[in-house]
Amino acid sequence: MFYLTKTPGILKALYRSCTWHLSPAKQAVYLTFDDGPHPQATPFVLEQLKKYNAKGTFFCIGKNVKEYPQIYQQLLEEGHTVGNHTHQHLNGWKTGTDTYIQNILEARQYIDSPLFRPPYGRITPFQIKALKNKIPQAQVIMWDVLSGDFDTAINGEACVQNVVFKTKPGSIVVFHDSTKAWDRLSYALPRVLEFCKKQQWGMEAIPLGK
After folding, report:
1. Is the Cβ–Cβ distance between 134 and 101 less than 8 Å?
2. pLDDT tens digit sequence for 32-86
3. Cα–Cα dist 181/149, whole Å
4. 130-155 residue pLDDT tens
5. What sign does the CA torsion over 38, 40, 45, 50 have?
6. Amino acid 60: pLDDT
7. Backbone φ, ψ for residue 31 (5° rounding)
8. b/e map of 167-190 (b: 16 or more CB within 10 Å)?
9. pTM of the full predicted structure?
10. Residues carrying an active site annotation
11. How far apart are CA 7 and CA 135, in angstroms?
12. Beta bridge pairs of residue 58
């Protein structure tokens, strides 16, 4: 499986309207979690974040919010921010624009947020334009560091190293609260949180209306 753990500048330049990182001035990093809510992984993530007085941003799949509304509500009650990740985890490169936007709007019935992250990071410029026509306040949030926890070919320690060596203040880091990522997430997240604490970085949620 090929992927880049650090987003290259050329990709950021091609998709300038998307948010790839936030200002380093706050000396904070932004841990994000995709594909939940999940009955095992999401409560674990919440527990770990609470231990470090950290906040995160959860990009939720609409059908999962529908299935686990109590966990979704817990995210909000504990002060984390949430974002839309489509209703059924659609790949924008393989989905027509009208179908893609309708799927986002379906998820929006359950997820009240201007933040949107495309599954796999795959979205076309036409889809971004259509999204902002439908939801003018929409913010497409990407990332600059991938933990790689979705990759079953690596172990949790490799995920820790991916984050530790690539993250800096302002970084948006991706983890996954999912079944597939569980083995690596459960190992890596506590160690990444400890690393960030030692660096004296804040661990904050991506603000709504940044």
Report:
1. yes
2. 999 999 999 999 999 999 999 999 999 999 999 999 999 999 999 999 999 999 9
3. 5
4. 999 999 999 999 999 999 999 999 99
5. positive
6. 98
7. -85, 130
8. bebbbbbbbbbbeebbebbbbbbb
9. 0.97
10. 34, 176
11. 26
12. 33, 82
The CA distance from 135 to 156, in Å, is 37
Per-residue model confidence (pLDDT) at position 210: 58
Q: Which two tokens stand for residue 110?
A: 């359950």
Query: Structure tokens of 19?
Result: 């948010």
User: What is the C-alpha to C-alpha distance for residues 17 and 19, in angstroms, rounded to an integer?
Assistant: 7
pLDDT at 194 over 80: yes
AA letter at 103: N
> Which DSSP state fits 114?
S
Q: Which amino acid belongs to residue 83?
A: G
Q: How wide is the angle at C-alpha 188 spanned by C-alphas 185 and 193, nearest 5°?
A: 115
Handedness of CA 93, 21, 9, 190 (dihedral sign): negative
Q: Can you tell me which residue has the tokens 């890596």?
A: 188
Cα 67–Cα 69–Cα 73 angle in degrees, nearest 5: 155
